[in-house]
Design goal:
It comes from Sphingorhabdus pulchriflava. The chain has about 300 residues and is α+β, with helices and mostly antiparallel strands. It has six helices and 18 strands. The strands form four sheets. A ten-stranded mixed beta sheet has the order 2-11-10-7-8-9-6-5-4-3, covered by helices on one side. A four-stranded mixed beta sheet has the order 1-18-13-14, covered by helices on one side.
Length: about 300
Amino acid sequence: MKTRRFSWIFLPVFAALACTPAHAKEPLRLAASSNWHVDYGADYCRLARQYGEGENIVFAFFDKFGPDEGFRITIAGKPVRTDVLKADAWVQFGPSEAKQPLPFLKGNVGKNAALLFSSDARIAPPSDDELKAIKDKKEGEWIELEPIAAKRYEAIQHLEIGKPLRQTIVLETGPLKRPMESLDKCIDELLTHWGIDVEKHKNLKRSPVPAQNPGRWIYSSDYPMDMLQIGQPALVEFRLSVNEDGKPTACHIQATTRPKEFDDAVCKSLLRRAAFEPALDSDGKPIASYWRSRVRFQIPGI
């Protein structure tokens, strides 16, 4: 089965690539200082591990929100401090996979500085053909990516994060096949709690398809006014329950970086405007399913 992709919903965002000095230092290589831990959340699954010691402790979090190969990375700790508020970081699951740019927001996890990556990653970026298909896709079209073979997860030895950090960090992860399988098991359990038929969803003929461009479901005017006045940005992960008729019946916030006002604004707008062609099972019959994406609120120029 091919990997199902989902679309972003953007409010006005102006991404800027910051100019940073070339790395003069050798990479900071950090060995694991804990085992992998899987957190079974109510609406997401998290794979977490600590690296390094003392002043060089770094925490890595891989969050999954659905049964595809994408996961959201968060890296936290003193070594990831940066003055860059938002840009692209160069990330590589080495030694064999290609480097890929991933957008991030500067943030915090507890008292630790953090890079909050704002789009899903896979261990490998899309191929040239897939990138062309993404570039040429029509409005509302979804692009499916070929799945990544298990042997490529097994071949991973480290995660490297470069620009915009002053010193490249290399986290010695070791093979990721078994940790990712644990994360996938967590997601399968989550689906049952969501009322989803896991086996039927492994062989869907079609996932829910937006009936119009999802970018039109949330407007700039939906930005909470009290947050607008203080220039408060936010990143909100959400999931819509979609019934057999293609109607969204419930909105669930899977993760959010900011106050509840954003969550309320997102769900209110989505339930009012979203519409779908329903999911189809392997026999072509409509089936209750879900659709997920994220919204990024950002004041232009901030």
